[in-house]
């Protein structure tokens, strides 16, 4: 197996596949309160690791905003080997640890998160740099009449409020599709990049050119309850990486064109003149709410788990004296 000797002892690297409901956590990343998704998973993995579990370290593959959900997202974990036994040395041990993890997650907050699967990976594997693509889905709900949109929400609409963006019936799926086609392809996405003015004085722009392999809209369905008074749509975006808040800003532009507020020429302008300030130069424009966004999948070449190319050295594997800072990766 892929054990690695570090100054703190022998460790093994694992990739854990997780689902979580973003409305049940204050945020995805580690926070000062210590109860975000990453914090919770670190404590959960340390719990199943047993003795010396306090040495467990975790890191997400993708950074998502507070309120965003995940259907299947990986977290990499650096876990000490206790008595020469790893968390997945046999099928029985692995299944027992998955059950143990899900049992404790269910006790913490029933239904908030669960562990799909996990496996050992080569210590040279990087959960961010070896990604082939990420697939996000943004859910839209469109009432079929203005009365349904404006009146007090029905039970199906109440059930959607944490998991979709509810738009007025002026929404046109044909216009939404036209906006999606504009955004698909290779573009400099700086106009869709959340880069605050105070940060621009501190650091230069990261690489904001992205290949959007797919941007499309399809029919969807109700999240928990279905209503015949509404239409449901999924906006799917596929790329290897994204700049901060890119998808939410893209969906805002798609929705604005679909409801007749934004002409296609303004989308062309955002792409032709890439700059973070330009998004808000359009009157009334703001990012789509986070609650409709789902990280649906993160894909890897399976060979990278056992024989990654290139191989990376993680700061976990070196002493504090030799620790190096790696440049941040965009997601």
Automatic annotation (TrEMBL):
Residues 179-301 form the Pseudouridine synthase I TruA alpha/beta domain. GO terms for biological process: tRNA pseudouridine synthesis. Its EC number is 5.4.99.12. Keywords: Isomerase, tRNA processing. The keyword Amino-acid biosynthesis does not apply. One of its GO terms (molecular function) is RNA binding. It catalyses: uridine(38/39/40) in tRNA = pseudouridine(38/39/40) in tRNA. The keyword tRNA processing applies. Pfam families: PseudoU_synth_1 (PF01416). Belongs to the tRNA pseudouridine synthase TruA family. This is tRNA pseudouridine synthase.
């Amino acid at each position: 197996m892929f054990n690695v000797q570090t100054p703190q002892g022998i460790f093994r690297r694992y990739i854990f596949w997780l689902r979580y409901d973003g409305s049940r956590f204050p945020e995805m990343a580690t926070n000062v309160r210590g109860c975000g998704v990453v914090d919770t998973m670190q404590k959960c993995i340390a719990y199943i690791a047993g003795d010396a579990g306090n040495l467990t370290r975790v890191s997400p593959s993708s950074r998502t905003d507070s309120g965003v959900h995940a259907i299947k997202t990986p977290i990499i974990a650096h876990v000490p080997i206790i008595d020469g036994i790893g968390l997945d040395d046999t099928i029985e041990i692995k299944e027992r640890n998955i059950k143990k993890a899900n049992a404790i997650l269910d006790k913490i907050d029933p239904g908030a998160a669960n562990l799909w699967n996990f496996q050992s990976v080569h210590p040279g594997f990087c959960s961010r740099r070896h990604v082939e693509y990420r697939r996000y889905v943004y859910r839209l709900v469109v009432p079929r009449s203005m009365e349904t949109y404006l009146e007090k929400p029905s039970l199906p609409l109440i059930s959607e409020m944490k998991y979709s963006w509810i738009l007025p019936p002026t929404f046109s799926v044909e216009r939404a599709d036209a906006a999606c086609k504009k955004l698909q392809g290779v573009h400099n996405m700086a106009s869709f990049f959340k880069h605050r003015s105070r940060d621009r004085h501190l650091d230069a722009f990261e690489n904001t050119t992205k290949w959007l392999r797919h941007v499309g809209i399809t029919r969807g369905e109700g999240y928990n309850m279905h209503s015949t008074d509404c239409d449901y749509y999924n906006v799917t975006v596929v790329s290897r990486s994204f700049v901060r808040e890119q998808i939410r800003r893209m969906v805002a532009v798609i929705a604005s064109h679909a409801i007749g507020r934004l002409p296609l020429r303004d989308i062309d302008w955002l792409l032709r003149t890439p700059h973070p300030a330009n998004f808000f130069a359009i009157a009334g424009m703001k990012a789509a709410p986070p609650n409709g966004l789902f990280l649906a999948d993160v894909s890897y070449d399976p060979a990278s788990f056992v024989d990654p190319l290139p191989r990376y050295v993680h700061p976990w594997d070196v002493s504090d004296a030799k620790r190096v800072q790696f440049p941040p990766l965009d997601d």
